[in-house]
Amino acid sequence: FRPNNKWYQEAQALGYRLAQAGFAVITGGGSGIMEAGNRGAREADGYSIGLNIQLPHEQRVNDYVTNGVGFNYFFTRKMMLSYAAQAYVFFPGGFGTLDELYEIVTLIQTKKIDERIPVVLVGSEYWTGLLNWTREVMYEKFHAIAQEDMDIYTLVDNADEAFEVIKKSRQRENLFF
Fold first, then answer.
1. CA angle at residue 149 from 143 to 152, to 5 degrees?
2. What pLDDT, on a 0 to 100 scale, did the predictor assign at position 58?
3. Whether the model pTM is above 0.85
4. Which residues pair with 52 in a beta bridge?
5. Which of 15, 45, 63, 167 makes an SS bond possible with 41, Cβ 3.0 to 4.6 Å?
6. Of all helices (H) and strands (E), which one includes residue 114?
């Protein structure tokens, strides 16, 4: 996703609003949507943190990260991304995005992390097919999840709606920033 992309712009706007409200914006530190979130936070003079994965190709820390850490292993990086989160926000992305979404949803479902922390999916046009499949196949056809498991996440269409969900959520104490 490049700066002229709708989702990049929405992620940048959300990063800006969150930073203005005193939230640290923590991303995977890479390009695209991650860059957009970090860019918005930095433009608002907020905390713009990148937890990057060290790969042989493609992944680099974006220019808007003010504090960054590189990880060799995905599982360590994902643990750090989720550890002190006040919200989990997922924009359109690739397999890594889906991997991280399902891990967070599973941890909330199994009560390994606080279920009151919002999981926000931004972009109906991207997420609706997956959410329909979740309801129709996983829940209705195979009974592989419970009905309340589909309440773990909230679908929104833009940064303003995402921000409203996040600001209404319970604030966590003892943050490190």
1. 160
2. 64
3. yes
4. 70
5. 15
6. none
